[in-house]
L-histidine N(Alpha)-methyltransferase (Olleya sediminilitoris), 314 residues
Amino acid sequence: MNNTFLNDVDKGLSNTPKYLLSKYFYDKIGDALFVDIMNMPEYYLTRAEFDIFKNQTQNLIETLKLRKDTFFELIELGAGDGTKTKQLLKALDTANYNFNYVPIDISQNALDQLKSSINSELPNINTTPKQGDYFNVLSSLKQSNHPKVILFLGSNIGNLNDILAQDFLTKLADSLQANDKLCIGLDLIKSEKIVLPAYNDSQGITRRFNLNLLERINKEFDANFDIDTFKHQPEYTEDEGIARSYLVSTKSQTVTIKALNKSFHFMEGERIHTETSRKYNDAILNGFLKKTSLKVIDKLMDSNQYFADYILNK
Ligand code: AVI
């Protein structure tokens, strides 16, 4: 039994207002649903960042100031299936750069698949995956003295609230040495018309992704959430620049979680906050960076200007 998850469920559902942490979306079913989300026409984020990696690869290599005569480590946090990164790896391989690719992910399954696909598509690339939580892996980064380039793509940092994002960037900066680089992919603040459908696709995949969290709790902790009585509710305002997802109880009800030996009451219309997806602009990013030793040196945007990969120097 996964006790951290169970304790987090207890804490979140005992809180007013109720919440559950979005990191628990990603069991095997959640991983597969997220892959489906990335292929939804409304979910522009992945395509926008792929556009940058595919069409501005040389620009990316130049702004990262990579040198052919110096070995470096290319470290990716939350690597997933590596589709975008492979564009960069291919270009580095063709131009004979001397580097080691270190994908880091919480899912060993995702890392195994990534390593085998790189081995067959790009056999010259030295890939040494590391399984773990970003925060735990950050401290182990300090052990090597080679120049480092950290990739943190997909607007994954957007799923951290502002306090955790600040903490993450501060810890990341402390793990790097002078002139190491960071490429961080951020979804940019834009109108509700574009952002909200990305979290409410017409085929209902995001709805299933959100509800899967309750299914997980039912399966893993012997709970009795009636999935049909909870509604997926995403919200976003351009002023704030934060998308939030909720699950709303459509009736007054009590849910029992046997593994906790506890029941939780939901009023009709009561919400569980399940995800935060912050969108960024230069000012918001710089607000976090001013408390760290990282500085923005460049910014690459997709053709629609929906998404940016910021290049930071330590
Ligand atoms: C992984 N993360 C950046 C996604 C996002 O856009 O916040 C997760 C997601 N949630 C719903 N759709 C996608």
Remarks:
- The chain has a mean pLDDT of 95.
- The two ends are 41 Å apart (CA to CA).
- The first strand starts at residue 18 and ends at 19.
